[in-house]
Amino acid sequence: MTSTHTLTHSYYSAFYAEKGYRFLEQIAQTHSMPRNLVVFSVMHCYEGSLPYLNVLCKLADHVIFIPKQATFCNNGSLLNTIQSIPNCDVVEPGFDKIALRDPVRCLDLIQQYTQEGQAFLILDHGGYFSQGVEAIFEAYDEQCVGIAELTANGIAKYRNRHLIKPLVSVAHLSIKTPADYEASECIVHYTDQILREAFGLKLNNLGFLTIGVIGSGNLGRGICKTLQGKGIHDIYVSDQDPRQLTALPRNGIQVCSTETMLEHCNLIFCCTGNGALHSAHIQSRRENLFIATVTSADDELNLPELVQQGTLQYVGGNKLVTEYQNRHGASIYLIAGGESANTPFKTGMGDPTLYLFEAAHLLAGLHLGSQSHSYAAGIQALSAQDEIFIAEQWLRYFYSYT
Question: Are 138 and 163 in contact (CB under 8 A)?
Answer without folding.
Answer: no
